[in-house]
Every structure is written in C-alpha cells, then in structure tokens.
Amino acid sequence: MLTLDTLFEPSLLSLQNVTYATPFGSPEVDIVFGVVDGMHETIPDMRKLWESHDMEYLGGGFGLEDYLLMTEFPVTSIEDLKGRKINAPGPAVNWLKGTGAVGVSGNLTTYYNDIQTGVAEGVIVFPTAAAAAKLFEVAPYVTRTGFGAQYAGAIVAKKSWFDELPAEVQEAIRTGVAEFAVAYRAGLEERVVGAFAAMEAGGANVSVLAAEERQRWAQSLPDIAGDWARAQDEQGLDGTGVVNTYMQELKDAGVLLPRDWTVE
C-alpha cells in the first residue's frame, strides 16, 4: 500500500482535484474529505481513474486545512491585491484571477526565498506548512480568507495485488485505513492550532477577511470550475457531474457558499 498525493497529479487524477477548481468551499477537512470520498462510490469515473493506473482506492485520504493568504502588507479587501505578486501552488493561481493580483506559480521550497528576494509579495498556503516554513518571517500579515479545505490524496494499493487477497484480508485493510483516517484528521486539528500559535508567537498579524469581502473575491473570479469541468468532459470524464455533485453535497452539509460553482 502507499499514499498518493492527488494534488501533484492534476492530469492523471484530474477529477480528484475538484476542490482546487471550486475555491471558497468548506473550511472543514472532515466535510471536504467525506464528500470527495463518498463521490468515489457514486461517480464511476472517480474510481476508474485510479483503476486505470492499477490502483485500488482505499480511502483514508489526506485533506489540507483551510487555505489562507500571507503577505508583506495588510489585506482587508481585494483592492489591496491590485498589482501585487502572489505565489500560489499549481491550480490555486486561478484563485487570484479577477482580483488584480499577479499569480506567480511556486511551491513550499521556493516561497520563502521568493518573498525575501521580491519575486513575490505574498503566498496562498495552508497554515501547517506556513508555520513549518516560517513564512511569517517574510510575510507577517496572515489573512484567513477562507479559500477552503482541500482534498489532497488517499491511500491506495496495487489493484492486481489487492484483488488476489482473501476477502477477509481486504476488509481488514479497509478497516485499518478508515481508522487511520480518523486519527489523521484528529491530529490535523491539533497541528492547525499549533501552527497559528507558532505564527503569532513569531510576530504574525492574524486577521479574518470580512464575509462580504470573501464573497466579493469569490464572485470576482472567472468561471474556473466550469472551465475545468468542460475540460474534463472533453476528455471523456464526467467533470460536470463531479463539480455539480460536489456543490450539492456541500450545500446538503450546510456549508454557506459565497459562490455556487454548479455548472449549467
């Protein structure tokens, strides 16, 4: 068995990246992971992508906590971003479109140096990574924008191997994976609390973006979910179904969305 980060496989496991195409979703990892995990049971293409690479999806996956913005300057509205260069990972660059900010692709190994040297003036990141990388030293303004928690990966097994196991062994493995998922998410909550404490102890100024500004930001974005869904549809995958199911499941879970990304 192995863990696989779907975030780094946007082509091979494209449908699993639906959360990155629908920003400003739920901040709760449990909700996000629970919904995407359940979609593997209701949308055949979700499992087929894993199986096409001889992988058996076991669940128990990984969620990344609510993404936020860290900058050299204070942010209280999207106007504060105009002309600013912001690092963002892969598809999260799209979360800056329409804000006036300039998205600069990067990753955790480059963020600190990029900001320190002026390549960027801020970064979109999740708290535990930000604290570990001490990004607050170069980007002390931490704005909790509520971009949403993200589905980031799962535990899988080589399908041709897994299929040959006795049914009771398969069930035992699935049970262990489910128990791991519970422990992982419980530990994540503690790590997030510790991350904010570490950032504040290091001098970070933590604020929460006002709800009306969060909605303005979400509404200012182009139809990134629709564009993503249609691109999947053109590849013969049910991109539209994935986005629409994800949106409906979030609403059914009581999530208040500043933008409904349902594809018409």
Automatic annotation (TrEMBL):
UniProt-listed InterPro entries: DctP_fam, TRAP_DctP_sf
Species: Sedimentitalea todarodis
Assigned keywords, A-Z: Periplasm, Signal, Transport
Alphabetical list of PANTHER family matching this protein: C4-DICARBOXYLATE-BINDING PROTEIN DCTB, PTHR33376
Keyword Signal: yes
Subcellular localization, as worded in the UniProt entry: Periplasm
Gene encoding the protein: dctP
A Pfam short name: DctP
Lineage of source species: Bacteria, Pseudomonadati, Pseudomonadota, Alphaproteobacteria, Rhodobacterales
Protein name listed in UniProt: TRAP transporter substrate-binding protein DctP
